[in-house]
Every structure is written in structure tokens, then in C-alpha cells.
Design brief:
With about 240 residues, the chain is α/β, with parallel strands linked by helices. The protein has two domains: about 5-140, 3-Layer(aba) Sandwich (Rossmann fold), CATH 3.40.50.620; about 145-235, no CATH class. The chain is about 35% helix and about 25% strand. It is built from seven helices and ten strands. It has helices spanning about 5-15, 30-40, 65-75, 90-105, 120-135, 145-155, 180-185, and strands at about 20-25, 45-55, 60, 80-85, 110-115, 135-140, 160-165, 200-205, 215-225, 230-235. Strands 1, 2, 3, 4, 5 and 6 form a six-stranded mixed beta sheet that branches. Strands 8-7-10-9 form a four-stranded antiparallel beta sheet, covered by helices on one side. The longest helix is centred in the middle third of the chain and has 17 residues, at about 90-105. It is globular and about 45 Å long.
Length: about 240
């Protein structure tokens, strides 16, 4: 487990932050983790890694169009490594392809990955186990932050995001396509995490301090597929 306090002290001692890649979901948590990793001096982000459903040609789980994903990479001004995944995808195939990706990064001298995880211990433990097997370690700039305060901080920073995936068992489908803003936070039911960390919703980011320029988007069709509700956010 990588402690961010230890990393900050190490950075201060050496004057340099470790070169790192960011696990990029296309959503707000990954985007704000990039902002915080830079602000805290935890890592020098030199690229972003994401998984893409090769059948739908969209970001896995979030359902974000590859075109919008690539516009994000341009706005980040960072190289992007896309890991194609079949659909359906077994855990064995997922781990094989992610192993190939991390091996490639290790070959380039990268030993650090940055993640936007907030408080799910099992997810963090899984990531750290897989990274350790690859000779790498993880950095979690948002770990255990109060998610209500964090959501407000994201919005105040100028981050613009829309809800692209809804789990209708946890949140009404009417939230699909809505902007992640103060009005949305006020409307969320009390049992829904303000950042959606329990899987209630996922987002796509189109503006914020992590980007060189905003991406103009429009909300298109809303569909239900495989038990989830998806809003098609389209780059203009």
C-alpha cells in the first residue's frame, strides 16, 4: 500500500515526483485524481491508460464513445494507451490484457499508477495486488476523502461532467444525462453516494482544470442495456 504522505515527503526530499500513468475511466474521479496528484506533488503524470469495449467501440462500463475519449486525451495533452477488451470479457482475459499493458509501461521505466478510487477497500487491494505482481505500485490521491465535500470541491474547481451510466436498482433512470452539479447533488437520494462510488452512477468529464480546453458536448439518446441506463454524450 502506498501512503501519500510518504510520497509527498519523498518528493520533497528528492525534488522530483515519480513518473506515473493514470488509470483513466473518462470520468470525474480519474480526472480529479490527476489534478490532486499534481497539486500534492505525488506524481508526474506522463500518460493515461483506459479500457475500451472492442465490440461497442466505447469505454468499458461508462459507455463513452471512443471519439470523445480521444478528445479527452487531446485536451489532457497526454498520450493514451487503450486496452481493447472483448464483450463479454472474462476476468482471465482482462488480467492478461492488463498485464500486457503494465509490462509495456514497466518497459518504459514506469513503476507508478495513479487511481481515482475513493473508499472501496476490496478494489484498492485488487489493484495493489496486480500492480505488485507487475513490479509497480499505486497512488490514490482521493483515498478516504469525504465524498460529499469532494463532490462540491470538484464542482467548485470548474470540473464539468455528465452522468453517463446509471444503475437503476440504485438510482432513478431520470438522472441519466444530467450534469454533475450542485442541483444534482441536492436531488440525490440520501442513500446514494455523492460521488457514486458504490456504482450508483458513472460520469464523463468535458471540462475542468485537468484540461487545456473544454470539450463541447451534447446529451443524445438514453437507452437501457444489460441492466444499466446509458446516456450517449456526444462531442460536438
Amino acid at each position: 500500500m502506498t501512503d501519500t504522505t510518504d510520497l509527498s515527503a519523498a518528493t520533497a526530499a528528492t525534488g522530483t515526483a515519480p513518473r506515473a500513468w493514470l488509470s483513466w475511466s473518462s470520468g470525474k474521479d480519474a480526472a480529479f485524481a490527476l489534478v490532486e496528484a499534481r497539486r500534492q506533488g505525488l506524481a508526474e503524470i506522463v500518460g493515461v491508460l483506459t479500457t475500451v469495449n472492442e465490440v461497442a467501440d466505447r469505454v468499458a462500463m461508462h459507455g463513452v464513445r471512443r471519439e470523445l475519449l480521444e478528445r479527452q486525451a487531446e485536451a489532457l495533452d497526454l498520450p493514451m494507451l487503450q486496452v481493447p477488451l472483448p464483450y463479454p470479457c472474462s476476468n482471465e482475459i482482462y488480467e492478461d490484457r492488463m498485464r500486457a499493458a503494465t509490462d509495456r509501461l514497466r518497459g518504459d521505466g514506469i513503476a507508478t499508477m495513479v487511481f481515482g478510487d475513493l473508499f472501496l477497500e476490496d478494489i484498492r487491494a485488487y489493484r495493489e495486488d496486480r500492480l505488485a505482481a507487475a513490479g509497480m505500485h499505486g497512488v490514490f490521491p482521493l483515498w478516504q476523502r469525504d465524498t460529499a465535500a469532494l463532490a462540491r470541491e470538484m464542482i467548485a474547481s470548474g470540473l464539468v461532467a455528465h452522468l453517463v451510466t446509471i444503475d437503476p436498482r440504485r438510482l432513478d433512470r431520470s438522472f441519466a444525462g444530467r450534469r454533475f452539479d450542485a442541483a444534482l447533488l441536492a436531488d440525490l437520494p440520501g442513500d446514494v453516494d455523492p460521488c457514486g462510488e458504490n456504482g450508483e452512477f458513472h460520469t464523463v468529464v468535458s471540462a475542468g482544470p485537468m484540461f487545456r480546453h473544454p470539450i463541447e458536448v451534447a446529451v443524445g439518446e438514453i437507452v437501457e442495456r444489460d441492466g444499466f441506463v446509458y446516456a450517449d454524450v456526444i462531442p460536438l
